[in-house]
Amino acid sequence: MRPCDAVGRPPLDELLRRLRRVGEDLGEPHAYEGEVACEPVAGHGGSHAAYLCEIDPDTQLWVLWDAAGFTYALLPPCPARGPREDTVCHLFDGHEPGHSWELGACRSCAGRGAC
Length: 115
Fold this sequence. Notes:
3-stranded antiparallel beta sheet
């Protein structure tokens, strides 16, 4: 399995406003490159999705997009556990089949623990 190869550029000003509203701050706007990569498995249905940050242990901020544009969603993390005790899925609850540890190039795992 591999992750979707779609990329998007959500509006930076809207993203920064949303993050600050939930207590996150990316710092100066130039620190954010503006491009996000879709994280669910290639060939998924529905909107593309990219993780932005953890709000609390039960809530993550994701950006979703399709041809109509970008939206931001507060979603619970996927509760699935992997084959190793320390392996968790780094996608959102209810995502299509294919957990993050099954993806060859697991972008969603970067800096977020074992995959």
